[in-house]
Amino acid sequence: MLCASERKQGEEIQMKSNQEKIIALHVCYEKTDGRRIPTAYVSNGEGVERLTRAKLNGFVRSLRTGDIVRLTAVRATDSFLFGLAERGVKLLYTHWHQTGIGKNLPPEEIVATWAKLPNVIFREFQPRPDIAHLRHALSLRGAVVHFYGDAVRAVKQEARNMGLADEDLIKAEPLFKQALEKLGEIRASVVSEEGTQLDTYIAKLAAKIPECEMTRRILHVQEWISAATFVAFSGSFERFPNVAAFWRFCGQSVENGKAPKRTRGVPLHWSPAMRTAVYLAGTAIIKNRANPWRQFYELEYAKEFAAHDTKCPNCKTKQGHCGARARRKMMKEILKRIWVAGNGKRLEAGHQSFENQTVSANLRAGLAGEAAKPPMQSNADLPSPS
């Protein structure tokens, strides 16, 4: 259902449609000589034209202030959209489920149908250069972290090949000690354009973006990296029509009773960057007993542990299995709250907040006598969420 403001905006677009050029645009990747080439399909409602790199640039230059482009997909950090917005082009989008268009259709059919949809279902979209800048900084940091991690692992593996199996022995050997120190210096030498450390620079950028502050509060963390990553790599929370779509993009959906995984020849429908960010954030939260979300994790862990013998008989990794399930449930609840807040909504009345739940004595009793991880903690020791 469209709210009054969205309906009014659609009616205003309808009134102007007679004077302005309205073009539907669908961008996809097509394989050519083994490479994935960005290809655009455009339609004015009468015909469809396929545009590759050179023609796409010409199409962008042909647009003028006031022209309308209907996008089949949007991302706040897409540099291509910045170019359109700078030319004064009005960018419109709508959630796919409002169109009635089926999935897996040929791009020509998608864009032709998109051009004929009623204006009332569309809303205006604004690209976010600030979030794009944040994403670039995070990508640079990620490249440095991966380089450092791979190099350190290679050095330690070579040390183990020489019989130095203990971590302290590796650091005591002059050659390997010097190599590890130099790698640390290289990592520290990569700074921002302002000359500050990357983490400091990212925190400065994120502090200026309201969505980052909102996400940081929901996560109950002091550092900015997790919140900044969620915001930058999601491409705007509002582009997801519901929380299930957001879960799916973050790799937290369920397919045939299992988490989604890569399959050769099948395009990914989830973001590896977001899935990694969700996993790292969840792991950090679990390790911090002062984080209020730890209580939610303990509750779900206790439930899973008590019922696991029925769900998975003769499981050889009961503790790890239960911990993974509990972490997944915790992060899905966090993602739900981020999506709700990011779309200016509120949790429905009657929603049972985890802050009001407790780990029952019966569930705790099911853990008695077993070296379950993590060790359960009294609810009285947990701080109330701010």
Would you spell out the secondary-structure blueprint of this structure?
Elements: H1 4-16, E1 22-32, E2 35-43, E3 48-51, H2 53-62, E4 68-71, H3 79-86, E5 90-93, H4 107-115, E6 123-124, H5 129-161, H6 167-172, H7 174-189, H8 198-206, H9 210-219, H10 225-234, H11 243-249, H12 272-287, H13 293-311, H14 318-342, H15 361-365
Parallel strand pairs: 1-4, 4-5
Antiparallel strand pairs: 1-2, 2-3, 5-6
Compact description:
By secondary structure, the chain is an alpha/beta fold. Helix content is 51%, strand content 9%.
Give me some keywords for this one.
disordered C terminus, 6-stranded mixed sheet, Nucleotidyltransferase, domain 5, globular, 15 helices, 6 strands, alpha/beta
Oligomer: single chain
Average pLDDT across residues?
82
Helix content: 40-55%
SSE succession: HEEEHEHEHEHHHHHHHHHHH
Tally of individual domains: 3
Largest sheet: 6 strands, mixed
Tertiary shape: globular
Q: How widely separated are the two ends?
A: 33 Å
**What structural class do the secondary elements suggest?**
alpha/beta
Low-confidence stretches: 10-18, 354-386
